[in-house]
Amino acid sequence: MTITSAVVSFALVxxxxxxxxxxxxxxxxxVAVARGRGHAYATxxxxxxxxxxxxxxxxxxxxxxxxxxxxxxxxMRVAGGIYLVVVGALMLRDAWRSRRTGAAEAAPTAVxxxxxxxxxxxxxxTGALTNLLNPKxxxxxxxxxxxxxxxGVAALPMGLLLALVHDLEAMxxxxxxxxxxxxxxxxxxxxxxxxTRLRRLxxxxxxxxxxxxxxxxxxxx
Length: 221
Fold this sequence. Notes:
There is one protein chain. This protein is mostly helical. The chain has one domain. The protein is built from nine helices and no strands. α2 packs antiparallel against α9 and α3 packs parallel to α6. The chain is globular and about 60 Å long. The two termini are about 35 Å apart.
């Protein structure tokens, strides 16, 4: 297997997995609706940074500890699950608060600007932590990278290259999602602001999904 064939083969596999809905997709969609494009791209960049670190760790053999140690995997699994539950609960809280204060949205076209929800760096950190605290991302790289390492090629540089390919695919997918949300917002309201009702629905759906995935991750065996 040459480097080129390895990159192309890995890109095909990673591309399919990228578009499967999951925690990362739900988080980016929620942020795109609630905070706008800037925060959504920051969240996506944080997710991709976390994936890059997982890829480097897998190539270096660090994340193989998750396979070798039941305790290490259990700690990562519980920590990641709790984090997702907390993030999801905060989204449901925001949805409930928006519902209680949404009486002003009486007219169908009433629009309010997105509430201040922190800096882009905070969005970046949320995306990175969501990815880094998910041990299944590490297990994916541990299981997949060895199959795409050509003979005679150093594992760490090749692992980073493959992780970068995965990141590029993810950013392209996230850009499509974010652009789609922006177009839908403009079509719906004729403006870049997000209707309170849409933000509330997105918070409720994304929060419920993250809590469900967090509980599944915590109880996974």
